[in-house]
Structure formats: C-alpha cells, structure tokens
C-alpha cells in the first residue's frame, strides 16, 4: 500500500491538505473498490464496458482492416473502461478521444511518479497527466453531480463511494480528480494488455479457437427480430465464468504467460528472514524502507512448477487433471504440486495488496473474447491465422507484457459465416 499512497501523494495536482490526509483514507477507498467489484454491481460495470465495445465491430459485408491490433483494442477498451468508471454519458475519455493518447503517453513514462526516479521523469509525462487532470476537474465540476442524479446513471458505485468519502474529507475538485487518476491507471494499465493477449493467443491457434467457439455458445441466447432474418445474440455477461470453462482456462493460461512484471513491497520494520536449515541456514536482514521487487516471470514460467515446455500455451495446464485428481484422492506428491502451483501463480498479486479490480478485469477479457470468437473472424491480412507477437516487458508500474513495437499487428476482422445478420445485446443490460 505505501507505494500507491506515495504514487498519489506525489501528484503535483494534489493540494497540501489532501496530501496530508490521503494516506488515512486510502484503505477505505481500496475497501470500497473490493466491495463493489462483486455481484450485480460488477456485472453492471462489465455490461457498460461491453456495450461500449460492440459498436466498433464490423457490420455485415465489411472487412475492417486494422493497422495495429494493439492500438485498436487499447483505444477502444480505454474508452470502455473509463465509461465503466465514470458513466457512458459523461465520460471525458469518450467526449474527448485525445485523452486516450494522453493516458497512454502518460503511461509510457510514469515510473518517475511512482518511484521518485526523477532521472526518468520527463516534462511530457507531467503534461499528459495535467491534461487528463484538467478533463477530470471539468467532469467533477460540471457533470458529475447531474450524472449520478440521473435515474439511469451508470457511474460506478466504487467511484461514487470514493468521491463521497473524499469530499467529506475536505478534498477540493482538483484533489478528487487527481486521486481518481490513480484508479483510472489501475483499471486500464493491465486490463487492456490482458484482453489483447487473450485474443492474440486464441486467434493464433486455430484448434483452440474452434474449441472456444463451441464453448462460448453456452453463454449466449438468441431472439428473432420479427421475420426480418435478423437475430439478436444476447451475451449472458454475468454467466460467462460459469458456463464457459474453456474461455476461463484460456484467460488463466494467458495470464500465466503474460504476467511477467514485478510486485513491489517496502520493508516497514527491520526484519530478519531465513532460508535453509542446519549449516546451510542463511539469515538476511531487510532494513526498514528497503524496496523489494518480486518478479512473477520466473515463477510463472518455471518448469519445476509447470512441467514440460512452460513457455508454451497449454489450455489444460492450470487444470492439470492428474494433479487435481490425485489432490482430491489425498496423494501427498500431488498435494504439494498443486500447492506449488497455487503459490507460484499470482497475476493479480497477493496478500493484503491483492488486486481489488481482478474480477472486473477478468470479466472484461472474457466478454471481449466471447464476442470475438463467436461472431468474428480475425486473421492476418493474407487470411492466415494471427502470428503471436513477441513480447516487450511491461513498465515498472505494470505487470503485463506488451506486444513488441516492431511486431506486425495488422489484422482483418469480418463477420463469421452464419453470424452476418446478428445484432448483439448484453444481459444484464
Ligand atoms: C488484468 C488486469 C489486472 C491485472 C493483471 C492487475 C494486477 C495487479 C497487481 C499485480 C497488483 C499488485 C498486487 C500486489 O502487489 O500484490 C495490482 C494492484 C492494484 N490493482 Fe490491479 N490488476 C488488473 C486490473 C485492475 C483493475 C480493473 C482495477 C480497478 C479498480 C485495478 C486496481 C488495482 C489497485 C487499486 C491496486 C493497488 C492495491 C493495493 O495496493 O492495495 N486493477 N493489480
């Protein structure tokens, strides 16, 4: 937690009064995020996001020629995710699309703000932060109250709670805007690349794609629109995780492979830790204030833990039946294998800092995947399956890899045969 608090407190836009109190109210804001990222509220948030995604998909007869899948998806999901937070009606990122670039340009340089590495800070990063801050100040000063008062408001409960708490604590509109920028960053920075890689792994493996197409049907119902020949496909957005185990397994295996960033901790008190026993025992003193970085990559890709070819995508890897069955039969060896896997798999971090947005992020990736596999063909421009792009490591504040900047990410998207006359709907609406 201290890192997030530092991250916000370091924002130039925060008033001295808010800077003083931010650390105190931060745990309540985190608690509120966790509380609202469950049940009906979570599904409503995901429906807002999915409804924002659907209009970008091609109509019947259109081949969408995309120059760069990463930029395309990134920009659309940035708008969808910010609409999920601030409501589709008044979302500044929807009203002013230039803010999407402002976010990603800011993201490209943000370590300076989190770690006080002034050497890597730059004026441009601060400028993009200020641009987004101005837009949010305008939103909170002019539309927010009417937006939450409207009877069909879709401003997320977690934002309403956080803003109410901050206002009660004496935050001015600039302070509220600054602290919401941290929520925006948390919501977008890993969610978007996770959704990207889930699509990339799926559409680069035709056998996997075929399996997912079959499984995805379980979470869609159809309604004829009169006798027009047009049908509505309604995505059961609140049931994908239950009805589509293969989509879930795809997401989990993707996360194992692409979550290769660092977890951050700071030592709060001088602490001794030991490893080994007897003469081999070694003890270390971790001094108060020391930063500790825990790399997820080696753990997520260890052959000792994941078995053969840990760099390869295997749909059943996390649900390795032999391990699961032996575990259920109480066999000790399997128990320890299953335990090691649990411990070694942490795409959302762990402990007190466990990501509070994990359920939203998973639902966003799953619903995007479901619509794409069911309704659309996505291929390289020459009609062959996508080639999985090589990785660039994530920034220091992020945990998920990015596609390499030189990767060929051109794709064509068109409606699948049999899905030409489909109108998409979302349930719950
Ligand atoms: C696939 C998408 C996501 C991934 C991979 C991800 C991953 C992580 C990781 C690894 C951490 C650090 C946990 C630790 O240190 O143990 C974290 C923290 C956090 N995440 Fe996420 N996250 C995602 C989506 C989201 C979303 C949608 C939100 C929206 C609210 C969010 C909000 C946060 C916040 C506020 C923290 C800081 C928690 C704290 O310090 O107490 N994340 N996330």
From TrEMBL:
Keywords: Heme, Iron, Metal-binding, Monooxygenase, Oxidoreductase. InterPro entries: CYP450_monoxygenase_sec-met, Cyt_P450, Cyt_P450_E_grp-IV, Cyt_P450_sf. Its cofactor is heme. SUPFAM superfamilies: Cytochrome P450 (SSF48264). Pfam families: p450. GO terms for molecular function: heme binding; iron ion binding; monooxygenase activity; oxidoreductase activity, acting on paired donors, with incorporation or reduction of molecular oxygen. Heme binds at residue 355. This is Cytochrome P450. Belongs to the cytochrome P450 family.
């Amino acid at each position: 937690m201290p890192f997030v608090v530092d991250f916000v407190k370091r924002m130039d836009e925060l008033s001295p009064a808010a800077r003083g109190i931010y650390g105190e109210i931060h745990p309540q804001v985190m608690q509120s995020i966790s509380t609202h990222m469950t049940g009906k509220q979570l599904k409503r948030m995901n429906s807002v996001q999915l409804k924002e995604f659907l209009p970008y998909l091609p109509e019947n007869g259109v081949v969408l020629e995309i120059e760069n899948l990463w930029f395309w998806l990134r920009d659309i999901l940035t708008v969808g995710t910010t609409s999920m937070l601030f409501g589709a009606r008044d979302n500044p990122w929807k009203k002013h699309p230039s803010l999407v670039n402002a976010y990603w340009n800011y993201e490209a340089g943000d370590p300076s703000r989190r770690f006080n590495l002034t050497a890597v800070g730059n004026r441009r990063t601060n400028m993009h932060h200020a641009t987004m801050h101005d837009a949010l100040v305008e939103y909170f000063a002019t539309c927010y109250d009417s937006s939450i008062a409207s009877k069909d408001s879709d401003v997320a409960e977690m934002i309403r709670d956080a803003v109410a708490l901050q206002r009660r604590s004496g935050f001015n509109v600039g302070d509220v805007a600054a602290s919401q920028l941290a929520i925006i960053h948390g919501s977008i920075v890993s969610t978007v690349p996770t959704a990207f890689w889930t699509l990339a792994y799926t559409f680069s493996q035709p056998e996997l794609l075929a399996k997912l197409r079959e499984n995805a049907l379980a979470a869609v119902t159809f309604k004829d629109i009169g006798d027009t020949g047009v049908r509505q496909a309604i995505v059961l957005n609140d049931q994908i995780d239950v009805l589509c185990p293969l989509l879930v397994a795809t997401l989990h295996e993707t996360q194992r492979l692409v979550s290769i960033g660092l977890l951050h901790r700071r030592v709060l008190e001088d602490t001794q830790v030991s490893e080994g026993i007897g003469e081999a025992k070694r003890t270390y003193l971790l001094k108060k204030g020391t930063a500790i970085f825990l790399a997820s990559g080696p753990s997520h890709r260890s052959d000792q833990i994941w078995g053969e070819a840990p760099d390869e995508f295997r749909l059943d890897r996390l649900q390795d039946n032999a391990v699961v069955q032996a575990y259920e039969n109480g066999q000790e060896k399997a128990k320890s294998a299953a335990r090691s896997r649990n411990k070694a798999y942490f795409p959302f971090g762990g402990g007190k800092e466990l990501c509070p947005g994990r359920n939203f992020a998973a639902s966003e990736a799953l619903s995007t995947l479901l619509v794409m596999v069911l309704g659309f063909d996505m291929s390289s421009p020459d009609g062959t399956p996508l080639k999985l792009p090589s990785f660039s490591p994530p920034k220091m504040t992020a945990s998920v890899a990015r596609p390499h900047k030189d990767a060929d990410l051109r794709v064509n998207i068109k409606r699948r045969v049999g899905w030409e006359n489909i109108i998409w709907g979302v349930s719950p609406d």
